[in-house]
Amino acid sequence: MTSTLDYPESISLGKGITMTFEGHLRRVDVRAGEDDDVLIVPSHWHQDHDEVMHVLEGKIKITLGTQVTICTPETGDVFVPEECRIALESFKGVPCVVTERNEPLEFDKKELFFRNMGAIPGGYSITEMDFRVFLFMLAWMEKAFVTILGGYVAPLLGYRIKYENLKKR
Length: 169
Hints:
Elements: E1 10-14, E2 17-22, E3 25-30, E4 40-44, E5 50-57, E6 60-64, E7 67-71, E8 78-80, E9 86-90, E10 96-103, H1 109-118, H2 139-156
């Protein structure tokens, strides 16, 4: 059973990079110190939700499909439709704060994903990850692979996720 204390307000995504959970909003802070990591979110897509990104401070490179845009606070909201590939990358030495929210707002899978990634023993660095299952996008094949590996093979090997839901007991 998971207690309220097991649900930290923020998790680390790398050296100098944190994600803070603020209700249905996730805020990513990139400190951008000399020895800090650059935030790199590899190309990925979302099956069940749209996403809205917004830069509060600094700048970040957002790639939607094949279109690359340098986003700043003046850019406003960046709408990412479901099944559209998205990638993000901060700039070395440039602090930034970016928020993301889902459409629909009532969508706990995203927070569960990040909380479980943050609970991996030994931690993880988003700068070292690659979200693609295959080099090309065949959504049905990626979904089948992840479902079989994550839903059946991993549990047989003894892996259990820390957070199965967001009910804080």
